Amino acid sequence: MTPARRARLSWLHRWAGLITGWFAFAIFLTGTLALFDTELTRWMQPETAVVPANATLTPRAMEHVQHILLESEHTGTSPSFLLLPDTRDPTLRILHYDGHSFVGPVLDPRTGDIIHPRQTEGGTFFFTFHYTLRIPAPWGARVVACAAFAFAVLVLSGVLLHLKRLIPDYFTLRLQAALPRCLLDLHVLTGSAMLPFHILITWSGLVLTAENALPLIHFSQVSASTQQSSIAQAIPQWAPRAPLNTMLQQARSHLGYAPSYVTFDGNETTFSAIQHNSLNANDLSAVFNSQTGEFTGKTTPATKLEDAFYILNGLHIARSMGNLLRWLWFCGGVASCVMIASGLIYYTARQKKHSTSTLHLAQRLNVTLLGGLLCACLGFLLCNRVIPAFWPTRANLEVEGFFCIWACCGLLAIACPPCKSWRILCWTTGIAGLGVPVMDALVVPLAIWGTALHVTVNSLCALTGLLCLGSGRLLSARSRHD
Amino acid sequence: MTSVPEYARRLVAALLCWLALVMWGSAIVNFCPAITDAATQGYRAIASALAAPAMVWAFWVNTPRTALVLSTALVLCGGLLLIIQP
């Protein structure tokens, strides 16, 4: 590669990274957490731990569900859907969209009794943040699509820049070297070691956001007329009259899998099964007449092209994959976050001697959007334990808490010099991380605190906290040395 | 040393490459209405894979003029295909 070409690619990598890196970090961090959204929701609702992992769904519970659905229809609630118990979440949930999030009662699948867990957005908060950044529709999804495009350009330009040293970079990490060198090693190592993951997740993400990133231009008025006809066909009666339990038994035999969720659309009740331990995101569905309970059909088998598309989706959303692969994806996501963060901090560390307004802005944005977001995520989990369980609108308070903590980090970055604000933020995040298991121990009963779910979430928070405290100590030592 | 206006022209060329993908993709999907769903999915999967190389290509070529001229030509051809569809 000629030096001029290298310089051009370097410019593209630097500026595309600077402009979209912060968005990419937020998308990757929340996406990594969203891999375990169901588990996080369960951790954030410790009251649901009364349901054992192997609880079986009984006809009595289904009858109670049907009763609740009919009541909801009478009160004019928008159509609900059911989340049936599975290995990731043994509870039975009746959810409907209230304009902001999916809410509804949580039931014990053995008895049909309502559990009354604390109100929370749970892991869904990270999932929604991942693809909308909590920016109102459709702009959030568009910003994410643009960031995905820029990230694809960043990955390709980065690979071209480091192509010659791709293999040696696997074995290079000089932690004792000067900060810029150490950061660059970390950036290149995490980038090259997890390169297949970066390519896969970026490409599948692009395909998922393609509706916004690669729109189709039509000159006809088809979409408007279709929309009008669908409005005209809306049926107010959606709750099933036929016994749900009978339909569930039939759906099991028709699908060959235990259904994972049930949707109600007009006169149709659809039982859908996620193909667990597979990469295919194509859910198998059995459709019944809501009035008579008669089986009306199954979804037609997907074509090879459709299957390829569903596998690409499955590889990104990781909903149907097994635990081992999900943890591998989690490690990949963490590596991506480290790669982006080290790249962004490297830019400011390298130019420390040339003080410019861009550098000052980048330093402050790094503190706010990298350190601040991590602190806010841990703060979100802490808020869940600190806010009383039956406080009205506590779900909103948790979200407000998340953004308040993030805003405080922004104010800290403005008020203090970058080195000092990094140190304060490292200590604060460290304390928040270590505070999560402590608060969990204080709030939930000891028997629940010892479950695998709580041990895993608490250990990861504590590990993050310890790493942040270690980074804070390292920063203090370096600043004394300088 | 590469000047800022040159980078600006390359950046415009990169955006034109994206527009060309949208134009060509829309034209191809509109040309086969019988398989719209499959064609749309196929177009999006392929265009997503091509997008990054196409945008980096604008910074790869030696002169910004080449990048601008070729990407503009691709956009115009795609637009023409989109207009002349049955």
Describe the structure concisely.
The complex is a heterodimer of chains A (482) and B (86). With 482 residues, chain A is an alpha+beta fold.
Question: Can you give keywords for this protein?
Answer:
heterodimer; A: 482 residues; alpha+beta; eight-stranded antiparallel beta sheet; 18 helices; 8 strands; 7% strand; B: 86 residues; mainly alpha; 3 helices; elongated
Can you describe what's shown?
The complex is a heterodimer of chains A (482) and B (86). Chain A is an alpha+beta fold and 482 residues long. Among the domains of chain A are: 46-117, no CATH class; 351-482, no CATH class. Chain A is 63% helix and 7% strand. Chain A is built from 18 helices and eight strands. Chain A has helices at residues 3-34, 37-44, 59-74, 124-132, 139-162, 166-170, 179-193, 195-208, 210-213, 222-232, 244-255, 304-317, 323-350, 357-386, 394-415, 418-443, 446-449, 452-481; strands at residues 81-83, 92-97, 102-103, 106-107, 261-265, 268-273, 284-289, 295-298. In chain A, strands 1, 2, 3, 4, 5, 6, 7 and 8 form an eight-stranded antiparallel β-sheet that branches. In chain A, strand 5 and strand 6 form a beta hairpin. In chain A, helix 1 (3-34) packs across helix 13 and helix 8 (195-208) packs across helix 12 (304-317). Chain A is globular. The relative contact order of chain A is 0.10. Chain B has 86 residues and is mainly alpha-helical. Chain B has one domain (4-83). Chain B contains three helices and no strands. Chain B has helices at 4-31, 36-60, 64-83. The longest helix of chain B is centred in the N-terminal third of the chain and has 28 residues, at 4-31. Classes of the chains: A alpha+beta (482), B mainly alpha (86). Chain A: It comes from Acetobacter okinawensis. Chain A: This is Peptidase. Chain A: Keywords: Membrane, Transmembrane, Transmembrane helix. Chain A: The chain crosses the membrane at residues 12-36, 139-161, 182-206, 327-347, 367-387, 399-417, 424-449, 455-475. Chain A: Pfam families: PepSY_TM (PF03929).
